[in-house]
Amino acid sequence: MNAMHLDSVLLAQEELRLDADFSDYLIIAIYFGFVLGIGWFAKRQVSSSIDFFLSGRSLPAWVTGLAFISANLGAVEIMGMSANGAQYGLPTMHYFWIGAVPAMLFLGVVMMPFYYGSKVRSVPEFMRMRFGTGAHLVNALSFAIAQLLIAGVNLFLLASIVEAILGWPLWVSLIAAAAVVLTYTTLGGLSAAIYNEVLQFFVIVAALLPLTLVALHKVGGIDGLVDKLQAEPDGDAMLSSWPGTNLTGIEDPFWSVVGIVFGLGFVLSFGYWTTNFVEVQRAMASKSMSAARNAPIIGSFPKMFVPFIVVVPGMIAAVLVTEIIQLRNGELPPDSDVTYNDAILLLMRDLLPNGMLGVAIAGLLASFMAGMAANISAFNTVFSVDLWEQYAVKDKPDDYYTRVGRWATVAATLVAIFTALIASGYGNLMDYLQTLFGFFNAPLFATFILGMFWKRMSATAGWVGLVSGTGAAIFVAILSEDALGGLSQGVIGLSGQGASFVAASAAFVVDIVVSVVVTYMSKPKPEESLVGFVYSLTPKENLRDPLAPTLPWYQQPLKLATISLIMVIALNIIFR
């Protein structure tokens, strides 16, 4: 490491150093005590593999609903969305109101009855029973790789907080942060992850809500924020969610809207929320069909209000934090490593007093641990159930696969330390994450939704479509400017999140077209084997909870989903 680079690193650490004192460290220590205590308590409830991987399918809807949203309230939400808020402004709201809530409602109303009713242990296992081992193996491998990469994002940001507090080298911070998540996830499996996610949800809100209120007061309230943003060269774009050309990088307003609605709102969003086992696993841990359907619907209510404590602080940082202002104006000193990912950290540094700073730091640590634990717990299930048990070692006693799950947790955590170094190379982590989602989730959703509603679709089409769709997304990413972190030359003139929207759209369309062509060239599965996996062949009573009509209105999925949909439409209109 040369002297100039060393000076740059030291300056960046100094810029991000949070002036924590004893009271802050005490709050953080108490929080970690609770986290590890929950892991130890959950270990006592693990007596079988279904307990370790799916919490024995015994949890109430409010617990799985909060865990459902908290599992996603990690690096993407806190650092990625605050970075987007600082860089793009209100168009970032699309990730919540267009790119999350509608898909969550669709999962609860339409798809959870298939997942829960089939009694599968994972989404890839559902794919195996619908399409056979070809699609299953492709899905299980791609999902496992994706979780290791995304766990690295959460671990990198978790280590960044430790580095900012203590000044430790990044590699030491990575190992220390990984050790905590590894301990409680290995001890208690999914139950430990879920109960910690519920705790983490409240800690995150307790951290970010005061930060938002203090920041709004500092900037002069909503009116002050609007006035300061309007004075910026791109102020109008930052204060209007549509057409979002600054977010997509697509200059034409019409095609920018198409990219948001189709690429983000349909392909990426539905692909992520309805087929991503990280999220679905939480709902599958519920104690009944109605509870499983309600989990994502309950989660949709806090989800639609999360941007007010994540995106808005990022927008405030864009006009209040010196380094972010310099970054936006291209005036950042050449020896500074500050990026948009640092927006919320710098805001905390500038605004929060000790004590409140400790709560905020605990909230950030909670969010990153929630995200990483969700990735790791989903990975250990898919590795153990879908890869090891299915293809490596079959017909072993139940406790053998529980042990395999624990060892998979250890291995995944170690790998995440290295994938964290990949994430460290991105100035805006949303670019990286959306690229990954385009590779892995968009083609899976195409295969999944076509197979669920078209009984003719063949097993061969399942795996060929997945491979073709993933290849199409990678091809578009290679042709895009900076879509792979600057590794490509940029043939089609798109960069960042706009490129990921186009890549995801290409993956979806190619997967559908290839699947249809291959289906008519191959033999379909017998209809009797598709009951419970294809909508038209499944008796409607199999998709309903017989006790649902006796539940109060606030526990009935359709009524809750209708209320949520009306609310999110209203938010889209108000902040258009």
Order of helices and strands: HHHHHHHHHHHHHHHHHHHHHHHHH
Give a quick account of the main beta sheet: strands, pairing sense, barrel closure.
none
Architecture per CATH nomenclature, i.e. the level-2 architecture of the largest domain: Up-down Bundle
- Coarse structural class: mainly alpha
General shape: globular
- Rounded to the nearest angstrom, the radius of gyration is 23 Å
Amount of helix: over 70%
Number of strands: 0
Strand-residue proportion: under 5%
Going by CATH, what is the homologous superfamily of the largest domain? Sodium/glucose cotransporter
- Low-confidence parts lasting 5 or more residues at pLDDT below 50? 1-14, 483-489
Count of runs of 4 or more consecutive helical residues: 25
Mean pLDDT equals 80
The count of domains is 2
Distance between the termini: 48 Å
CATH top level class name of the largest domain: Mainly Alpha
CATH topology grouping of the largest domain: Sodium/glucose cotransporter
Your description of this structure?
The structure is a single chain. The chain has 576 residues and is an all-alpha fold. It has two domains: 385 residues, Sodium/glucose cotransporter (Up-down Bundle), CATH 1.20.1730.10; 113 residues, no CATH class. 74% of the residues lie in helices and 0% in strands. The protein contains 25 helices and no strands. α4 crosses α10 and α9 crosses α21. The N terminus is likely disordered.
SSE map:
Elements: H1 3-16, H2 22-43, H3 49-54, H4 61-72, H5 75-87, H6 94-97, H7 101-118, H8 123-131, H9 133-166, H10 170-219, H11 221-230, H12 235-238, H13 245-248, H14 253-275, H15 277-284, H16 289-305, H17 307-320, H18 322-328, H19 343-351, H20 356-392, H21 398-423, H22 429-453, H23 459-479, H24 496-519, H25 557-574
